[in-house]
């Protein structure tokens, strides 16, 4: 286990968080990064000492992580389960399904205000790139997509997003930190992809949206069109 104060999760993201939420975020990051390996036994007492908190926030954190299926609760602690490659892929499946569904709803909505807000977030992403701030870029990247999703005001889509967000946020943060160190030049492409998103929403252009999904989810490109077709069938079935 990481030494006390060796934190992976950005402190500036947790300014209004409770002690339990701070412990949850950090433990989640350590698990999905591999810093805490699958099979590791987590002791409530040891965690409380490491994080300099009482056992109550530790129990809160373990309960949340157990609900996310990345640990298994035991007496006085837990065992780390982690995430499989299949589960990582399924996270992106759900992201693509959500964003295709949301785009179909946006086609019938006024989106000028949304486009303006997304353009502002994109400028913040560019500033983060300029100053090589991976954490700020990751925060703005998640905010960009969350802003699109919240725009349709669909309570159950938001519920799915909110459940998916914590693990996905950690994956994005780890990925962006790595890219800033190893593939800094790739951020030009990433910015272009987000500009495609904005243009697709502005013009209500489905082909452009498919293109932007392909480029944004470059590691799961083969699934985009199948998931898009599935979403269109579901939408038509509901008419």
What does this protein structure show overall?
Helices cover 69% and strands 5% of the residues. It has 10 helices and 3 strands. The protein has a 3-stranded antiparallel sheet with strand order 1-3-2. Helix 8 runs antiparallel to helix 9. The longest helix is centred in the C-terminal third of the chain and has 28 residues.
Give the topology.
Elements: H1 19-32, E1 41-43, H2 44-51, H3 55-67, E2 71-74, E3 77-80, H4 85-107, H5 112-130, H6 134-150, H7 155-182, H8 187-203, H9 206-216, H10 224-237
Antiparallel strand pairs: 1-3, 2-3
Helix pairs in contact: 1-3, 1-7, 2-3, 4-7, 4-9, 4-10, 5-6, 5-8, 6-7, 8-9
Short characterization:
The protein has helices at 19-32, 44-51, 55-67, 85-107, 112-130, 134-150, 155-182, 187-203, 206-216, 224-237, and strands spanning 41-43, 71-74, 77-80.
Strand portion: under 5%
Order of helices and strands: HEHHEEHHHHHHH
Count of strand segments: 3
Main sheet record: 3 strands, antiparallel
Which runs of at least 5 residues are low in confidence (pLDDT < 50)?
219-225, 234-239
Helix content percent band: 55-70%
Radius of gyration: 19 Å
Class by alpha and beta content: mainly alpha
Taking the alpha carbons of the first and last residues, their distance comes to 52 Å
Oligomer: single chain
Overall pLDDT metric: 87
Major beta sheet, strand line-up: 1-3-2
Number of helices: 10
User: What's the overall geometry?
Assistant: globular
Which keywords apply here?
239 residues, mainly alpha, 3-stranded antiparallel beta sheet, 10 helices, globular, disordered C terminus
């Amino acid at each position: 286990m990481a030494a006390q104060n060796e934190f992976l999760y950005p402190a500036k993201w947790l300014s209004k968080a409770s002690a339990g939420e701070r412990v949850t975020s950090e433990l989640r990051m350590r698990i999905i990064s591999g810093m805490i390996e699958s099979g590791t036994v987590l002791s409530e007492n040891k965690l409380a000492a490491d994080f300099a908190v009482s056992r109550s926030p530790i129990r809160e954190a373990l309960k949340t992580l157990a609900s996310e299926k990345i640990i298994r609760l035991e007496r006085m602690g837990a065992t780390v389960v982690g995430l499989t490659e299949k589960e990582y892929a399924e996270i992106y499946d759900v992201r693509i399904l959500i964003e295709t569904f949301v785009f179909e709803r946006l086609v019938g909505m006024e989106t000028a205000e949304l486009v303006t807000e997304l353009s502002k977030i994109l400028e913040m992403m560019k500033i983060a790139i300029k100053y090589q701030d991976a954490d700020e870029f990751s925060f703005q990247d998640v905010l960009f997509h969350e802003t699109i999703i919240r725009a349709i005001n669909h309570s159950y889509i938001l519920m799915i997003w909110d459940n998916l967000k914590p693990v996905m946020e950690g994956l994005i943060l780890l990925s962006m930190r790595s890219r800033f160190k190893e593939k800094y030049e790739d951020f030009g492409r990433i910015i272009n992809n987000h500009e495609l998103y904005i243009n697709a929403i502005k013009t209500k252009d489905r082909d452009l949206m498919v293109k932007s999904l392909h480029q944004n989810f470059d590691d799961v490109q083969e699934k985009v069109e199948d998931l898009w077709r599935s979403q269109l069938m579901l939408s038509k079935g509901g008419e």
